Amino acid sequence: MSNSETKEATIRQLYTELNKHCASADYDKALKAANKIIGLDVTEWKAAKCKLVCLIQNGKFAEVLKFLERGTSIPDTTFEKAYSEYRLNRPEDAFRTIQAVAAGAEQWVELASNLQELLAQILYRLERYDECFELYRAIIKNTHDDYDDERRTNMSAVAANLAGTGQAPTNLPEDTYELTYNAACALAGRREYGEAERKLRTSEKLCRDSLEEDGATEEDIIDEITIIKVQLAYCLQMQGRVKEASALYADALRHKTNDAALTAVVSNNLVVINRDQNVFDSRKKMKVATSEQAEQKLTARQRKTITFNNYLLTYFASPAECGVLAGRIANAHPDLEFQTLLVRASVLARDKKYREAVDLLEGYADRLPADRTAELLEVRFAIVQLQLMAGNRKAAIDTLESLGEARYRPGVVSALVTLHLGLDNKQAASDMLRSAVEWYKRQKGGAAISDADLSDMWRQAASFHLRGGQPETAAKSLEELLRTHPNDMKLLAQLVIAYAQFDPKRAQQASKRLPALETLTTVSEIDALEATNWMMIAKAVRRKQPGTGGRTTGDQSPGVGTPSADQQQARKQKRKKRKGKLPKNYIIGVQPDPERWLPRYERAGYRKKRDRRVKEVIKGSQGTASGQADQFDMSKAYNQTKNSPATPGAGGVTQLEQIAAAAAATRQLPRKNQHKKKKGGKH
What we know:
Layout: H1 3-23, H2 27-40, H3 45-57, H4 61-69, H5 78-87, H6 91-99, H7 113-125, H8 129-142, H9 148-162, H10 177-189, H11 193-213, H12 218-238, H13 242-255, H14 260-274, H15 279-289, H16 292-295, H17 300-317, H18 322-332, H19 337-350, H20 354-367, H21 373-389, H22 393-401, H23 410-422, H24 426-443, H25 451-467, H26 471-484, H27 489-500, H28 504-511, H29 523-531, H30 538-543, H31 565-574, H32 626-630, H33 634-643, H34 655-668
Helix pairs in contact: 1-2, 2-3, 4-5, 5-6, 5-7, 6-7, 7-8, 8-9, 9-10, 10-11, 11-12, 12-13, 12-14, 13-14, 14-15, 14-17, 15-17, 17-18, 17-19, 18-19, 19-20, 20-21, 21-22, 22-23, 23-24, 24-25, 25-26, 26-27, 27-28
GO cellular component, one term: signal recognition particle, endoplasmic reticulum targeting
Protein name: Signal recognition particle subunit SRP72
Main location: cytoplasm
């Protein structure tokens, strides 16, 4: 047997081993067999293909790329190369690899089915959701196999991400828990949090039922449900139900899921709930949210949000670092430059360095192009806030008045009027309102704000000028209001009052449009009032006879039917005067106690009940003279009275008479047995 025959026999034997190992999913042994075949014959591209598959199954994506760089005899390795780059978190390189095969986006549908599926995943990772959705739609339309449910689920996930941009398609299916979850995420993206909460709870129930039916373990079920609960917690948090959200977030962290992106989202949301409280715990959670492992799986929007929240946390924990971090954030996310400057200005304002904070924002405003008017207004408003914090109202007025035509916006006009009145400059406030009214009159229909949005400003301007003795200016505002509210009679009445102060003829003419007094109350309103029984007691309602309160069929007048004189006389005779209620224990002819409305302890005859357990001890100040003690000894007082009688007519009263008077007064006090408590009685 020649060497070539021996080589072929060995290769056939190795292919047999390779096939056996691949069938048993033993990719390590299959890889060794493939390497032996390639060692014997480099042109054996089937063995090289098997080697790529074994490396991918073992997760050795970097080795796949190295093997392809050395060159192989495999006819087409586009899928293996692009997939390995995708798994190595290099979606841009993977997209370029596939794009090299397809000349343009219009030819993507002509790619092989496996490349189309991979390209859809790459586009999703690149957050090119519009193209991804269209590609999934084409794949589902042209492919029918056992993976249709997975494709529909992926397409609904793309639609959920499109919801934040307002381009999400509707009427997506919701027959599985994944589809229901994605539909809830789409609702949350449109800020319909209540409806999203309802769908998430439905998804949670469907998830448990489906996994239990498939025989999944409780741990696997909890892993899947945790994702749904975190999204539910977010919806609750956005609805202001922070306690419920915090409990769900805490449960998710206790479960210790392996999903780094989910842990990062939970940690960030808990930091938002903590705000400026429990800063030490927030810093630990933010460290988890900003880890490299988590950032690889987060979307660009999520990474930007977490970055800015970390910057806000730095403001509370260590404000001195805000200046250093601001530059890094502005470089990584240029659209966050203004927000970072606001935080730096807040740090300066907290240290009472208002001038430096204003200079910082004014420098940023000078760099902005003129076409970014919305952002310029935000900067100016922030400067006004700082000037008001510094107590410089005049500078705040100057800043607002420098806004050009934007100063005629209702909110700015209100702020300027308030500031002028705060400086006791009523004339300037009046001039501001007058100029705003004139400006909107010149704009007619060209104003950016509709007349309906200006109604409140017109009303405030009219009221202000009427109180300030400027009826002509007030009339102009009321006229503008009447154009949009022609049927508002209250406005018309105010306009008549304003006209009456400077033009009686116009007032007389305008008053003709006011309704007559007879029309202010209609017949239907009278009937409704009479039919209402809320003014009558229940007995009178039951006693009411048919026809006594309504209109009869023969009535010609629009009013209520009038009873005859006999009926009125009979009604008076039946009516009896109700007797007033008398208090219990009341004795006729005896004047009631004038103190009956006072509490017992405030009445003159009240005596506190003696507590027999406490022995009363007469206490006095130390050093009391013996003569003072004898004063209260009645036996001694009586003997002294016998020996020293008082002189009649001298105007004095003997001590015995004082004691007798005191005893008589004591006898006049009511006794305890006269105050026996009676149930329901009032003393």
